[in-house]
TrEMBL record, chain A:
GO MF: ubiquitin protein ligase activity; zinc ion binding
Skewed-composition ranges (Basic and acidic residues): 525-535
This protein's name: RBR-type E3 ubiquitin transferase
Residue ranges, compositional bias (Low complexity): 571-582
Residue span of region Disordered: 522-598
The gene coding this protein: ARI1
Family the UniProt entry places it in: Belongs to the RBR family. Ariadne subfamily.
Pfam families documented for this protein: Ariadne (PF19422), IBR (PF01485), IBR_2 (PF22605), UBA_ARI1 (PF21235)
TrEMBL record, chain B:
Catalytic residues of the enzyme: C97
GO molecular function: ATP binding; ubiquitin conjugating enzyme activity
Keyword Transferase: yes
Name of the protein described by the UniProt record: E2 ubiquitin-conjugating enzyme
Keywords recorded for this protein, A-Z: ATP-binding, Nucleotide-binding, Peroxisome biogenesis, Transferase, Ubl conjugation pathway
Superkingdom of this protein's organism: Eukaryota
One Pfam match: UQ_con
EC number, as in UniProt: 2.3.2.23
Keyword hit for ATP-binding: yes
The species this protein was found in: Apostasia shenzhenica
Amino acid sequence: MADDEDFPSSSDVEEPEDADCYLSDQYDDNAENVLQYLEDGRQEDCNWSVSSVITRESLLAAQKEDLRKIMELLALSEQHARTLLIHYRWDVERIFELLDQKGKDKLFSEAGVTNLENKINHSLSSFNPFTCSICFEDVSCSVITEMECGHCYCNECWTEHFIVKINDGQSRRIRCMAPKCNAICDEAIVRSLVSARDPDIAERFERVLLESYIEDNDKVKWCPSVPHCGNAIRVMGDIYCEVECTCGMQFCFRCLSEAHSPCSCLMWELWVKKCQDESETVNWITVNTKPCPKCHKPVEKNGGCNLVACICGQAFCWLCGGATGRDHTWSTITGHSCGRFKEDRVKRIESARRELDRYMHYHNRYKAHTDSLKQESNLKETILGKIAISENKDSRIKDYSWVMNGLNRLFRSRRVLSYSYPFAFYMFGDELFKDEMTPQETDLKQNLFEDQQQQLESNVEKLSMLLESDFQEFSDEEVMENMKHVINLSSVIDRLCKQMYLCIENELLYPLQRATHNIAPYKSKGPERASEHSSRFTKATNEDIDVQHGSAVNASGSPSPAKRLSQFQPSSSSDGKHGCSSTKRAKNEGSLDTPLFDLNMPAEVVDKSWT
Amino acid sequence: MITLLHDYQASRARLFKEYKEVQREKSADPDIQLVCDDSNIFKWTALIKGPSETPYEGGVFQLAFSIPEQYPLLPPQVRFLTKIFHPNVHFKTGEICLDILKNAWSPAWTLQSVCRAIIALMAHPEPDSPLNCDSGNLLRSGDIRGYYSMARMYTRLAAMPKKG
Ligand SMILES: [Zn+2]
Ligand SMILES: [Zn+2]
Ligand SMILES: [Zn+2]
Ligand SMILES: [Zn+2]
Ligand SMILES: [Zn+2]
Ligand SMILES: [Zn+2]
Ligand SMILES: [Zn+2]
């Protein structure tokens, strides 16, 4: 899809102060809208769920951040913090919540963390000699290990136990061997005992612990690229979003398939299935043709009559396929009484036919836009050529960034348009919402939606035509005219897309009682590009969000980080007022945005103080 | 291969110790009689007495143990050889649904303690995780008498010495 990596200045309509002069007469009444749009575009940035790329190299640093938060707040060692985080799926906010609700002791014991405050200390040498209650051997107290829960067995038995659990895929939660003991074994002990026996297994244990940050974490997912780029993406805030990995892969964070908004994940899943098994086509053939009983060629039925004739001259009954004579009345065929000349059968065929027509209607349009998108991707090369020619022309117009901006707008809106068809197929069909809306409501909503869809469609086609013009051969005046149109159309289209998402959220989905369909919010600039994970070890938490935004902008080469940073108001970044996040979603007002403690200390210092 | 061999030796040693313990404490627990197969230390059987004040009272039930090579790190497989009507025992296979034989297994448990846990299970069925749906349903629906009489009948039929 649109790849503006190479076109730093093409991030969208820019320079608000110049915007007015781009407006042609035809679009004058849109002047305000453009300004509004520019305004919105800026606000939208504040509402983005921040995503970052975690590479194999930065995985360790990424989890250290969460570990450190827990270690500091609860005064825990790293391994206890990890045990707690694995148990609560790396959801730091949830742990803070539960700490309030349950209290420390319950929080710890449910996760299998031994609260060291309650531990009774005694010396191991008091056991000498020690009888291990697993192997029943008497051993010296130098080869036994006591876990924090107080349970003590010989090293030999511990080691065997760890290896069995690691091989069984339970590395993240190896429990103590004592009956009914819920404690999770100290990872340092596991590490040292297992590596003494089998370094390969110890390495596997290490890797699993590391990858737990991705595997057991609802906010981090592996990038679905094939072959895999090795990255994972972390989002902060809403998980119903679309992101772009640094490898270029754009995907729905929720279901990991291609970015599919305004379809919900369920709609998209159903649609893909429907398109894959060509059951509809198979259905069509069985509904619309029957083999001739004489020559076995498929014969299509024309009109309502159930007596059909093959080109070979044979007549046969459409319902049973049996050969017949040629004389018939409305309800019977001469000399033929299969008893299936029945209304309901005809009705069934008709309804199958209607279903198919409906599917074909939406599928054709979906496919038309997807195909156009493919063709327009080729347009990019051509346009770059035209820009190169124009820039070398003797002309006072030197800036052609508007062409690429327009093209990127075309790509994004084309994408929205094509996915709006499967959305409509399910929104107004019987499959998902039949019980939620009366036929009248459905009609009303469908008209509303199709109105917007058609407006968007006609503007997208206009933009497509404008961009195909040979502007390199135009006079300066003509170029200016063309530029005005492109810029205006772009802003109109962006507004229409935004409106369509709002309509889906507020008018279509919001009133539904039972179904929950979360749609990734509309992003004027396409799926959010995840920034390289930036370690925050030297930053204060209340700056984190801004810093990440800064790096995202920086990576794509757009306006300087400093300029962008000044636009962010931390207080307004989580109020969810702007943009069009979707319906019925538990809004997670992040407590993370507010500083919980001073993180100005370097990690190493903090780590050391706990180990 | 070496690890496997080691496990095999370790489990054998442990079972041998359990065997000696059983010999020594033969009279300690009169409700349990554990017997090791003459030729295979990984095959055991046990005779347990039905707990008093339960429909199993007076019955003697035979259990079969099949012990994995990684014992005691992995639990033994145990099933009833004697027919028993109990919500947590599969009526046909004798398979037992008991947490300590699955997730909650601890290597510190012994065959003896497993027998004790099974006797406790006979006295306190858990109708919410049934293997024998019929008896589970009877108990869950509160039909204690129905459950009791069925269990009693099967105890008489299968677990008591035939008189005369
Ligand atoms: Zn323990
Ligand atoms: Zn031991
Ligand atoms: Zn990737
Ligand atoms: Zn999805
Ligand atoms: Zn024919
Ligand atoms: Zn006719
Ligand atoms: Zn017929």
